Structures are given as structure tokens and as C-alpha cells.
Structures
1.
Amino acid sequence: MASLLLGLAVWGFVIEPDRLVVHEVRLALPRWPMELAGLRIAVLADIHAGAPHIGLDKIEQIAATVDQARPDIVILLGDYVVGFRSTGFGHTIPPEDTARVLASLRAPLGVFAILGNHDWWFDGERVRRAFRTAGIVVLENEAVSVTRDGQALWLAGLADLWTRRPDVIGALRGVPDGAPAIVLTHSPDVFPDVPARVALTLAGHTHGGQLRLPLIGRPVVPSRYGQRYAAGHVVEDGRHLFVTTGIGTSIIPIRIGVPPEIAVLTIAGADVTARSARAGFR
């Protein structure tokens, strides 16, 4: 028993948190335009620079790995810093340094970010300024559009749920009816308020619970909905959510069964997927 516990401790505190997995996911979304079929979105969340295993060298590795995946667009979903030191784990990495490394990310349609609760606990205005100075677009309750093959795609970034006031309706106000739109939120708990006209909601924050145990599942998830929005692709009433399990750790620097991930989503319309399946493609 002692050997088993020691092995789990080594895996959870030393090995798993230091891994980096590229999670390739194909999503079939209803009413997704043909011009945007095959769009590749790299999603990063909860880097927590300064947490154990997350130094600038690891962030450089993350950026290089994202570039190798050749995404069309990169989405950063908040918590770039360690927002408190009460647990005694981690150290401070200035957000300017993190932003400088992430500014090396390359994608044809750009790099877009929102802020998370740890960013605001640290100094949200400073984090936002650092990222904008580095050339990264930071959104808060506002939407911007990008265009591929003449088709506009709208990105609506929300304020953090824990520390600010997310305004879903306000963020979508300038998005034309029927236009493809993706909502960016740090916490997935806003998902029930996202209207059906949004093609996809992207979230982080949960870290996938950091622990996923046999029979038990994820004992602790920082969400009022428990394990409902803990990780991965969720479909409710025809609306689509993807929650990335993120990269760093918070409070306790442990991961078991939930490796740090870069999520790379390839988006296709439901009709395209159906035709491919009928034709014998997988």
C-alpha cells in the first residue's frame, strides 16, 4: 500500500503535471458554413505561469507545440498568472514575460484572449495591458469578426464570471442574426445563458478537476454544476460547449488522470460530416 501511495504521489505531483498532450477533437456543428469547414482552433487555458512545472521554458514549449499543430486561429481562455500565494506553491512570473512568449504564436486568423479570475486577483488591468502591448487581442463583453474565404466568423469574449460581470447579450449585440459565432468564457457556468444561435462556447477554468479517479470521477470541480461541465464536449438542447482541462494547476499542484492539454478543434458542419460518413470517409 505504501508503495502504491508513493507511486501515485510521484505521478500526481511530479510526472503528470509536467506532461503536455495535444488533444485533437473533431466537432460537427449544425448550421456551420461550408466556407469555414475544417477550421482548426487551438484552445489554451489556465497556463498559470509560475505554478510548479510552468516556467517560461514550458510556455515556450507550449507556443512551439501550438504552432506545429498549424491552427487557423488561437484562443486563450484566461488565468495566465498565479493569482494568490496562500498555499505557498509557485512563484511570480510577470504577465509581460508570459505575453511576450505567447506573442510568438502564429495563426492566419489571429490570436484572441479573455481574462480569468486569477488574472483579476493578480491585476487584471496589468495583464490586459501586457497582452495588448504584445499584439494579442483581449476581449471583454465584446465581439470581433475574422474572415475566411469571404465568410465572417464572430468571436464574442465574455468578462470573467467570478470577478467581473459577463454580459452575453451585450457581447452578441453586434453579431448579425444567422452569422456563425463562438462565445469565449473563462468559466463554463455561463453556458446555460448562451443563446441557441451561438455555434459553440469555449471555456476553461475547471482544470478538469485536476483529479479523475476510477469509480469516483472528478471529486472537486470549481463549478456550481459539479461534473456537468467539467471537461470536453457537452451538448445540451442542441447547443455546443467545449471545456479544455487546461495546462497549469491551482491551489494544489497535482494532476492525476487529467494531463495538461492543448486542445485543437477541427470544426465541420453536421451536414458535411453526414455526407463524409455516407461516402465511407472517417
Note: The helical segments are 2-15, 56-68, 95-102, 117-133, 168-172, 270-278.
2.
Amino acid sequence: MDFYSFKNFRQINDEEIRLVWEWRNHIEIRKWMYNQDLIPLENHIKFIGNLKTDDTKQYWLVKRKDVAIGVMSIIGINDMSGEWGYYIAPEFHGKNLGVEFYYYSFEFLFNIMKMEKVFGYALVKNIAANSLNDLFGFDKDLITKEIEGVAYDFYFRNLSKEKFLSKIQNDLKILKLLDFTYLKNI
């Protein structure tokens, strides 16, 4: 994991705050969010400031070889489990970083942060995220959630530390895909 690092939002600088805000407001990111509205910079700054006193949420700026490539989060933290979320920066879409991003994010969450279980929701129509979730062995249940009066179909996904460490971490297909991605000079 030497070439991946996770910088807590509590420590990001002004330039990184602005970068994350730009990513979050990009249409290719917003379209997969619960809240698809544009976020004003002042609200984003306030949100990050509030994280300093909220132990139920952790957000990280994810870097690969010291290049910021995305964001990962855990919210609703309770008994070493929580709702996992992430996005890869728009400029890295189509660069085949998904498997690597997932793998090292889970290594961080399960081995460093000592989480026992992560769960989340992926829109059914988000084929890329659901394909990665399937590859990584997430359980899947179809649910409907109402957001601002509109019903959306989601897959509720969850993955345990035990499953990741015993099956996924050494899965030959995933390890081959990691080798392929690592060789790329991104």
C-alpha cells in the first residue's frame, strides 16, 4: 500500500478543499449522489469544519503516488461498521483505477481503521459501481429508497472484514487486475 495514502479531511489544506469541492460538483460525480444539487463552496467548507467534532463520519482524500485521485468515506460509524462511500476524480474515469482503488481502500478500512463491516447503496443503474461491488464479493439486496419524493432502485451492499481478508484479499482475478493497473503510469 506504499503508493496509496489516505489524508483525513480534518487535515486537508485549502487547495485540497477546493479540489474536492470541484470534484463533488462535477456532473459525473453528482449524478450518483443522494443529493445531486450543486454545493456552494461555503457549505462545503462548513461541512468539512463540522467533521472535526463528528466521530460518526470520516472522509479521506485518496492519493495514488502522491496524486489526488478520489475521495472515500465512512458515515454512520457504529460498532466498527459504517456506510462506505467513494468517488474517483472525474479526470481518472476510464483509467481502470476502480479495482485498485477498491482494494487499497478496503485494506485501509479493515487493516488500519479496524472496521469490521462496510455497507452502502448503489443505484441499480450504476453499472460500474455494481460490477466492482460484485467482483469484491459484496452481498446484494434490491431496495427502493425515496429521495425528495422520488423513488429510486438501489442495491444495498455489504462486505465484512472476514470475507475480505479470507476470500477477496488473495483472489487471483483481483490480484491480476491489480498487477495490470499498477504497471500503468498514472
Note: The mean pLDDT is 92.
3.
Amino acid sequence: MANNWREFDKYSKAFEWIIENRPMLIVEYGGGSSTHHINQLLDELDYGGRVIAYENNPEWLEHANNKGENQHGSIRLAEIEVIDHDKGYCRYIHPIEDVEEVDMVIIDGPDYRLLLDPRGHPFNATDNLELIVNHLGREVPYFVDSRQGVVRYYKDLGYTTQIPQ
């Protein structure tokens, strides 16, 4: 694992966006080492930005806690709800009010390989960004970590604010 946010290459475009735009609230779906590196960057920039990360796997959260990756208490345990089993859509369950001030969404979870559709294929997408956009009445810039089903889902909805990988 990279020890410093600068070494966490798979998030380099997201970090560039954060440096340039200084979001006050980043919401991440799928917490862990990425959350730790976001917090490192936010601490270094020191402008008051924060991250809330939702993680559905209690063992992964415990792992992050044991490794010191949740030093700010940014990672919160949240259950996953199946929205459409046939299409492979799910969502993290959390109060929408907790993220009303969101300026950026990062989608890096859940581990879709653990959620299978009726054909035995991994799930495709979480609809949390869609819920946020519908609630706020505006698009929110978002970054997707290597989840092509999620990219297609939001592209099909016509979202235009994806931060490139």
C-alpha cells in the first residue's frame, strides 16, 4: 500500500480534482485505504474539507481501523440494499441528510464480486449518486474507481460530471 497520497496512483485524477476544486464534503462509497489517502490530502491542503466513506463490510472496516486508516473516523458502516437483483443494482443505506452538502462523490465499492445476479454475474452498480442528484436537484462531480458497470449506469442516465480515471 502506498504510504502517502502522492503514491496512491489509481486516485491521481481524483486528487488533482480535489486540489483544484477544494470540495468541502467528499462522499465515498467503499471506505478503506483510499479514504485514508483522501484524508492525508485534505490534511495537507488544510482548507476544511472532509470525507465521509460508507463501507458495508465490517471486516474491512475493522482492517482499516487496525491499520490506522480510519484515524479521522471518516469510515462508517452501512448496509447494502439490493435495488434490482436481475440488473445487479444496489445501494448503501444511509440518511440522505448526512450528505446534503456533498461536493464530490467517489464510487469505490461495494465488492460487487460478493453480490451476484441470478446468472451468477457480479452486480453492476450502486444508485447512491442518482439518489443524491435527485435529492439535491443538481449533478455532483463523481469519480469511479475501475467499475465499468457504474460508469455505464451514470452515462446512460446522461450524467456529465464524471472525473476521468
Note: The mean pLDDT is 92.
